[in-house]
Design goal:
Length: 252
């Protein structure tokens, strides 16, 4: 987990802001620690960039002989949080819970940023789960597709001439807390398979969703465990999606 995620999860960024503004409340406090604080933040930022720059290649190359087939992966761009009480969704509910939802979206984007989404998918046996050939090469795309183009673009999203080409696109990551059903994470996935052209041969789009017990973390709770739970449930959501996708994609 990167420093950026830890900062977001623990509220350390807020704490740093308080520390840096403290001299205005206590003018007699020495500022000797300020250069050290600044250096630590710079070092953390450099470490964060270095960790993000190291692209995970796990599972991309097939263990069997490559057969020219390709699976292209894209992470979700859109993160949504909806907290509703006994009043249910609505303008009043949005006003009451706007702060919670804004914070939840920040935590979602931290735990499930683009690299983390792709890493989570690469931990799974995508070839088997999507009934692809053992020789399929997996290609990750770090930049999400624009959400508004998800259903509009019917051609291949990658510049590939492979005669055996598939896409796995993550469309939405949605956290919800409902008074009756509790907390859950839902993820919208879409698989598209092409032949030797720009025409979609098969397509399946559906949600996967599972409950949460740790996220969002309350004050004093283990924030790192809560963020890790998001990643675990994200994987479980895909497993649910893939189970339903296989018979649909196999049908003629």
């Amino acid at each position: 987990m990167t420093l950026r995620k830890i900062f977001a999860a623990t509220g350390l960024a807020t704490g740093l802001a308080i520390v840096l503004t403290a001299p205005t409340m206590a003018q007699d406090k020495p500022m000797a620690d300020a250069p050290m604080m600044e250096k630590a933040m710079k070092d953390g930022a450099m470490m964060d960039k270095s960790m993000d720059a190291a692209v995970n290649t796990k599972g991309l190359a097939p263990t069997a002989a490559a057969d020219g087939c390709e699976l292209h992966l894209w992470p979700a761009e859109r993160m949504t949080s909806l907290t509703s009480g006994l009043l249910g969704p609505g303008l009043l509910n949005s006003a009451i819970n706007s702060g919670k939802d804004a914070n939840n979206k920040t935590l979602l984007a931290s735990a499930l940023d683009s690299p983390s989404q792709l890493d989570a998918l690469q931990d799974l046996d995508l070839r088997t789960m999507l009934s692809l050939t053992p020789g399929t090469t997996i290609i990750r795309h770090e930049t999400p597709l624009e959400r508004k183009t998800m259903n509009k673009v019917k051609e291949r999203r990658a510049e590939s001439t492979s005669t055996c080409y598939s896409e796995l696109i993550v469309a939405d990551v949605f956290y919800q807390k409902a008074a009756i059903y509790g907390r859950s994470l839902r993820t919208l996935f879409m698989v598209r398979k092409f032949g030797n052209d720009q025409k979609i041969d098969k397509e399946y789009k559906a949600w996967g969703g599972n409950g949460l017990s740790l996220f969002p973390p309350k004050e004093g709770e283990d924030a790192i465990a809560a963020l890790d739970e998001l990643v675990s449930v994200y994987k479980a959501n895909f497993e649910e999606f893939a189970k339903n996708a296989r018979p649909k994609l196999a049908a003629k």
